[in-house]
């Protein structure tokens, strides 16, 4: 994936929440807590393992599941993540996050709201109006990096606007005067690698199954969406290996489970990235910030970072516009989008994803059991509306096409339709009855017997494929 960025689960809130819950469960089961009562009566619990060690082991366990899926070549399961399902799922999750933000607005910091609005207006105006105008007037080939101008911290690029934002924050004392939440102290240097806690690996494997499924679903969903948008193909199995080994290697560092960074990926795409070379520069500059420049960003407001992500996700919110196109083309895909969207919003991510997949499979079963029938006849006369006149139908030749596999699930309906459709259109039995088998992807044993029964009914029957 050329534009894809993966990082600790904090970038995808659902994965972070699931990881936090799994972390708590493992701590309760295998934490080995020792209760201590101080002289003043304070009760504290000392654990033999720390939450960050559990999180790292969860990351390691999740990577094992993902690599195992790659080894077993289970990427074919990703075929059931259709575009409507993916679009409804991601849009539903985004609306959940928006709802969480809205209900917290009364308790929000006014200064943070003002700074966020100004940042979003700046980004939206620049990308929507200023960039097209400058592109037409000066024939600009390169996109204007408004994210870099405002804040490129999310990609590890220490841009000018970041410096200005941090400097203004420090000079105006936003944190102390307006209680504006800032990035805070960033320790310099890389964390020391540690081995995962193998004594809790069994519990972590159990707790990480759901996290692995959601991570794969989100990753493949984003990969499919961007591959379709930017017109290139992806290898699902390679994506599973990439995710899995990222998790396994990440398990040796104090990180949360690795997942796709929805916001950072969209920022990367909107910045004009076309190759994986951008990841090398982002990683190199991020390491530079971690090693030397991190402490300089301690006064940067977090709301500026959130504004970049919000504007970058604008195109994902516009996915609701797909419903207008889906409904007249395919009622089934329309229903899949609605079910995926509503279940993700009203239940939760895991429940919504599971229901969406089962519903998509149910539609496949329905379409297989009740496929379409096509009856072709020759008519030399057509009325003013472009329709065939029944009284002009030739009774010599009739062509019947079955659009779908002929299986044990639909042979009973096929036996009835042959005679029913013939009587509806043709006034007398045709001399030649041709069955077009070109749309039959598969015929099982019962399907073959059905074709034999049909052949016994008509005097002359031809099979065409």
Question: Outline of this structure?
Answer:
The chain is of the alpha/beta class and 465 residues long. The protein has 18 helices and 8 strands. It has 2 domains: 13-318, no CATH class; 370-464, 2-Layer Sandwich (Transcription Regulator spoIIAA).
What this model shows, in words?
It is found in: Membrane. Its main location: membrane. It is a single chain. This protein is an alpha/beta fold. It has two domains: 13-318, no CATH class; 370-464, 2-Layer Sandwich (Transcription Regulator spoIIAA). Helices cover 58% and strands 8% of the residues. The chain contains 18 helices and eight strands. The chain has helices at 13-30, 51-71, 83-103, 110-138, 146-150, 160-172, 174-177, 201-230, 236-250, 262-270, 277-293, 302-312, 314-317, 322-329, 331-346, 349-369, 411-425, 445-457, and strands at 6-8, 34-37, 43-46, 258-260, 372-377, 397-403, 432-436, 461-464. It has a four-stranded mixed β-sheet with strand order 5-6-7-8, covered by helices on one side. The chain has a two-stranded antiparallel sheet with strand order 1-4. A hairpin with a 5-residue loop joins strand 2 and strand 3 (43-46). Helix 1 (13-30) packs antiparallel against helix 8 (201-230) and helix 4 (110-138) crosses helix 12. The longest helix has 30 residues, at 201-230. The chain is globular. The model is unreliable at 5-11, 151-163 and 386-393 (pLDDT under 50).
């Amino acid at each position: 994936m050329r534009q894809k960025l993966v990082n600790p689960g904090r970038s995808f809130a659902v994965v972070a929440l699931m990881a936090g819950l799994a972390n708590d469960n493992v701590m309760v089961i295998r934490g080995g807590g020792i209760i201590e009562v101080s002289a003043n009566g304070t009760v504290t619990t000392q654990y033999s393992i720390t939450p960050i060690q559990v999180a790292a082991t969860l990351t390691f366990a999740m990577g094992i599941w993902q690599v195992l899926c790659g080894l077993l070549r289970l990427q074919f399961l990703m075929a059931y993540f259709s575009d409507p399902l993916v679009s409804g799922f991601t849009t539903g999750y985004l609306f959940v996050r928006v709802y969480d933000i809205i209900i917290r607005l009364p308790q929000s910091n006014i200064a943070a709201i003002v700074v966020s609005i100004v940042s979003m207006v700046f980004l939206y105006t620049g990308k929507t109006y200023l960039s097209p105008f400058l592109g037409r007037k000066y024939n600009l080939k390169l996109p204007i990096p408004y994210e870099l101008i405002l804040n490129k911290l999310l990609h590890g690029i220490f841009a000018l606007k970041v410096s200005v934002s941090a400097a203004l924050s420090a000079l105006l004392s936003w944190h102390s005067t307006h209680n504006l939440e800032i990035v805070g102290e960033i320790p310099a240097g890389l964390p020391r690698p540690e081995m995962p806690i193998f004594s809790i690996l069994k519990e972590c494997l159990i707790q990480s199954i759901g996290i692995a499924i959601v991570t794969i679903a989100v990753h493949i969903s984003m990969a499919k969406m961007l591959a379709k948008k930017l017109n290139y193909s992806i290898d699902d199995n390679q994506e599973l290996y990439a995710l899995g080994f990222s998790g396994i290697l990440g398990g040796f560092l104090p990180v949360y489970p690795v997942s796709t960074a929805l916001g950072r990926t969209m920022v990367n795409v909107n910045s004009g990235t076309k190759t994986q070379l951008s990841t090398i520069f982002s990683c190199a500059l991020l390491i530079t910030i971690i090693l030397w420049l991190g402490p300089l960003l301690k006064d940067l407001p977090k709301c500026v970072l959130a504004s970049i992500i919000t504007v970058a996700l604008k195109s994902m919110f516009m996915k609701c516009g797909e419903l207008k196109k889906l409904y007249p083309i395919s009622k089934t895909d329309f229903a899949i989008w609605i079910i995926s969207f509503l279940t993700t919003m009203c239940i939760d991510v895991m429940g919504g994803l599971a229901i969406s997949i089962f519903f998509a499979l149910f539609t496949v079963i329905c379409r297989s059991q009740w496929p379409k029938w096509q009856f072709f006849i020759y008519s030399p006369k057509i009325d003013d509306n472009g329709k065939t006149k029944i009284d002009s139908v030739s009774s010599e030749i009739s062509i019947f096409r079955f659009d779908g596999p002929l299986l044990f699930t639909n042979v009973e309906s096929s036996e009835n339709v042959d005679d029913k459709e013939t009587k509806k259109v043709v006034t007398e039995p045709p001399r030649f009855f041709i069955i077009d088998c070109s749309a039959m992807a598969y015929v099982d044993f019962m399907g073959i017997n059905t074709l034999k029964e049909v052949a016994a009914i008509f005097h002359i029957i031809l099979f065409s494929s």
